[in-house]
User: Which sequence fits this backbone?
């Protein structure tokens, strides 16, 4: 199973099975984070289910409810939005009801895209450092795609 | 995605007890889920549902198997195990976050179940807290280990 015989076939099998799993997840895992649009299209299936909206712009706020816009879709959210104002970017979970698309609010919190970008930049620096350290210790053997230890 | 700084630091402690080449595989394994997930997300522009296996127990075992063929045959079996265990540590660290149950890691048992689970101790972007805690924890552990004469890391 781990031998070098049929090396490329095994490599292909590993990656192929993984991509197969990703494809299967895409088609079979409809209940994993469905979008509002998908929930509307398959309304009977998702009525009463909890939905997660990763990013939406607050459109209007009143005392008992607020509205958000996700691309072209406007969704009414029933629940108090404390500290939220029109124009804010928010992340929401709530129970979905179709026709018209409405959510009973579970949780809402503001999204900070610029902070996410900072975390990603720092993470890229760490990744680059780990790759550098890795190649300080390992080298690719001539004629084969194998990392060998030690480098000396 | 918790930040890679936290994942790197939390991987250093258990990896220090492993033999040198396997050590590297463990640390790389702890970073791979985000690298693979981001590659699928950004480079291939796939939907989040497609990326989920990058953070599942089964998905990790599969691409760790493919990745272990980059190591020489002598250490390949150990490298696969280290890559997989490093990935599982990554998922465990991710489960400490509060992503409202939406992160790929929260579905770590897919395809066995599609229910999400996480411990929800801190918001993902509060790395301002998690990074210093991980740095202090890793640095103090390594300091104590070195004081006792253990050769923990190169």
Assistant:
């Amino acid at each position: 199973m781990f031998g070098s015989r049929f090396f490329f076939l095994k490599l292909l099998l590993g990656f192929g099975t993984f991509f197969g799993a990703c494809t299967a997840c895409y088609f079979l895992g409809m209940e994993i984070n469905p979008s509002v649009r998908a929930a509307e299209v398959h309304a009977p299936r998702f009525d009463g289910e909890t939905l997660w909206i990763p990013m939406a712009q607050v459109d209007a706020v009143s005392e008992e409810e607020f509205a958000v816009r996700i691309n072209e879709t406007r969704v009414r959210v029933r629940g108090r939005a404390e500290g939220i104002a029109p124009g804010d970017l928010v992340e929401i979970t709530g129970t979905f009801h179709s026709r018209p698309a409405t959510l009973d609010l579970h949780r809402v919190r503001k999204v900070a895209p610029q902070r996410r970008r900072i975390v990603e930049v720092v993470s890229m620096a760490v990744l680059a450092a780990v790759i550098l350290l890795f190649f300080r210790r390992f080298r690719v053997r001539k004629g084969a795609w194998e990392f060998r230890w030690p480098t000396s | 995605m918790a930040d890679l700084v936290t994942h790197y630091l939390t991987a250093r402690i258990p990896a220090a007890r492993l033999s040198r080449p396997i050590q590297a595989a463990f640390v790389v394994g702890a970073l791979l889920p985000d690298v693979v997930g981001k590659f699928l997300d950004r480079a291939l522009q796939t939907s989040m549902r497609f990326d989920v296996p990058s953070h599942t127990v089964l998905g990790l075992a599969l691409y760790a198997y493919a990745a272990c063929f980059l190591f020489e045959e002598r250490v390949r079996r150990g490298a696969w195990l280290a890559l997989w265990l490093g990935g599982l540590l990554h998922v465990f660290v991710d489960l400490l976050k509060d992503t409202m149950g939406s992160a790929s890691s929260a579905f770590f048992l897919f395809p066995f179940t599609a229910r999400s689970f996480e411990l929800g101790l801190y918001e993902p972007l509060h790395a301002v807290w998690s990074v210093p805690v991980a740095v202090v924890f890793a640095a103090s552990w390594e300091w104590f280990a070195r004081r006792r004469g253990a050769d923990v890391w190169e």
